[in-house]
Amino acid sequence: MSAPHQPENGMTRGVNYAPWERTFSKIVSPFEEFIHRETTSGMLLMIMAVVAMLLANSMFADAYHHLLHAEISLNAGSWTIGMSLHHWVNDGLMALFFFVVGLELKRELLVGELSDLKQAALPVIAAIGGMLMPALIYLAFNHAGDAMRGWGIPMATDIAFAVGVLVLLAARVPKSLITFLVALAIADDLGAVLVIALFYTSELSISALMAAAIIYIIMIVLNVSGVRRILPYFLLAVVLWYALLQSGVHATLAGVLGAFAVPARSKYDPSLFSENIRELLARFDASRKQAGSDMMSNEQMHDVARKLEDGVKGVQTPLQQLEQAWHLPVAFIVIPIFALINAGIPLQLGEMAEVAGHPVFLGVMLGLLLGKFVGISGACWLALKLGIGQLPGGTRFSQVVAVSVLGGIGFTMSIFITELAFAGQEQYLLMAKTGILAASALAGIIGLLWLGWLGRPQK
Prior knowledge:
Blueprint: H1 21-35, H2 38-56, H3 61-68, E1 71-76, E2 79-84, H4 85-110, H5 117-141, H6 159-167, H7 175-199, H8 206-224, H9 230-247, H10 253-261, H11 270-291, H12 299-315, H13 318-342, H14 352-356, H15 359-385, H16 397-406, H17 411-421, H18 426-454
Antiparallel strand pairs: 1-2
Helix pairs in contact: 2-6, 2-13, 4-7, 4-10, 4-13, 5-7, 5-15, 6-7, 6-18, 8-9, 9-10, 11-12, 15-16, 15-18, 16-18, 17-18
């Protein structure tokens, strides 16, 4: 039973504390502030990637790989679905990652950096250049055979890592440069989603695709009918995921499609919300004066508080609510698990020379490290020369060029495409993942040093 407790010095007057609440708040609050920093997600990814590498190259390697291939099944009567843990993470859990990507894409297209054609021009053109050049460099090394399927691997940028590195230099770079990189990475994500949908699919099942189309139409009908409750969309999205899993189109795309079906309009106009809140607050105060301040005994106050909560939810869009609710779980649970499952690469020092000369390794590493740099900076230069785009406010072209290096941090999306391109081909998987890790590490270090040097205090 908690009892009201007034802190010393009247620091938080009117707040009721449980006996141990202030002690725990000293631990929880700094942690909550810490995890909200953009750099934390990238740091956690790096840690989990290192843990995966250590496991894959230790006495626990056999147990690690056995765990990846452990079969997990769901059964209901005669219906069953079974996949390895590795596939449950890549095909199932990653749908949540693509759901958040879809929410971010929709928000950016409606009201963000990609909503204004003039503002969006430069990052979108940069993203296109940053996808084409890496693919061409990869194909220059792998222009025949099964290895060709990996051309999409170096096209993607990992937004968490790239932005995390840039945020480390927040005091030395303009905020508009961070905004530019975010817009570029989101446009890049859209391109990666389209590449996966169009080029990395197996044999298609028309009946399953038709079922998926009908489910999605129902979701759109709910949207335009004004249904804002989350549960119907969630249940339909799960069925959509299963239909796509059976169709041959990669099931994680259900996340993006589900996100685009989520309503992006609030129920209440802000002015109406403001009027209602003022009225409810007046009723709350009047009831408090008449019947006392105990919420347990004052039913009218409780009723007003519930209506206030409904009003606060109604003025927010379902898209905003879901993005806020799912961003942290995806960033700090889903993606780290993905890294732990997929980044475990067995390395033999004696074979490093062979790896370094392999066409897949070279295509991926140089595609990310050199292709992103040349593609992004070259596309920006051309767009500026043609007067199509404009530099972010307060930035120099040299800073945009340095940021283009950070585009070579591929990691999450690149590893995901690797799993699609080279499923069951262990040698190619090893070469591609090694190239991704090498390029991502080098791109992060070079970009950090270059931007730090450009932002140094002038004497």
